[in-house]
Design brief:
The chain has one domain: TIM Barrel (Alpha-Beta Barrel), CATH 3.20.20.70. The protein is 49% helix and 15% strand. It has an eight-stranded parallel β-barrel with strand order 1-2-3-4-5-6-7-8, surrounded by eight helices. Strand 3, helix 5 and strand 4 form a beta-alpha-beta unit. It starts with a helix and ends with a helix. 41% of the residues are buried.
Length: 246
């Protein structure tokens, strides 16, 4: 039987909210015993800067820095070095940056962590955003399906030494088959029973199904944030994760 702690560790709360840092930190205090990690994305990081990372960590929270670094190899390697120095537990780059960019990032993470004497954060490569579907991919100019493109990017990331990817739960089975059991898969676009108004996510799945398919971590934001009782919803998602693991 899976322990509650193991199930909770797999839940990442998207902390992209708040007009001031105090509100964001109040959410951290509210949920730190009910989720495994807090995702700090472009909105929160642009508003509050590195301080939000340090404030979350001071309260005992782990941070997933979701900035999707995508630039020339040297720039992303230096940004990766900075992420390690921030003390985050997880961060991501974009697989579309190419193999050299990803390889340089992996090398930068490992060398920086070794020099600091710390455990390196988990580096992930973003594949295709869950707000995009086949028609979107075709409009951009790709001559393949979303699933085919995700798989190509995941294999490219693995070959570059990146230990995991961010991908829709719908792509977990194919990625797991191609990249192996140790390859980490983080899935956004998770939707429990409660509906989200004006939802822009197109490729979504329930927590139970995503875990059962083989996802390692689930990112959930609005279903918790917009709930009347956010703690209760977070705990119910943890229970769904336990069911999926079973």
């Amino acid at each position: 039987m899976q322990t509650p702690n193991r199930s909770r560790e797999k839940l990442i709360f998207a902390l992209d909210l708040g007009e001031d840092l105090g509100e964001a930190i109040r959410w951290t205090d509210l949920l730190k015993d009910h989720v495994g990690m807090f995702k700090v994305g472009k909105e929160a990081f642009t508003r509050f800067g590195p301080r939000i990372v340090s404030d979350i960590r001071e309260r005992g929270g782990n941070v997933f820095l979701d900035l999707k670094f995508h630039d020339i190899p040297n720039t992303v390697a230096m940004a990766s070095q900075a992420a390690v120095k921030l003390g985050v537990s997880m961060f991501n780059i974009h697989a579309f940056g190419g193999r050299e960019m990803m390889e340089r990032s992996v090398d930068s993470v490992n060398k920086t962590a070794s020099a600091l004497g710390v455990t390196p954060p988990l580096l992930l490569a973003v594949t295709v955003l869950t707000s995009l579907n086949d028609s979107d991919i075709k409009e951009i100019g790709f001559g393949c399906t979303t699933g085919e493109l995700v798989l190509k990017l995941a294999v490219s990331a693995r070959d570059a030494g990146v230990p995991g990817v961010v991908a829709s739960a719908h792509d977990v089975i194919s990625i797991r088959k191609a990249c192996g059991g140790d390859f980490v898969i983080v899935t956004p676009g998770i939707r429990p029973g409660n509906k989200v108004a004006d939802d822009d996510q197109k490729r979504v799945l329930t927590p139970r199904d995503a875990i059962a398919m083989g996802a390692d971590y689930l990112v959930v934001g609005r279903p918790i944030r917009l709930a009347d009782d956010p703690v209760a919803v977070a705990d119910s998602i943890t229970e769904e994760i336990s069911e999926g693991l079973r």
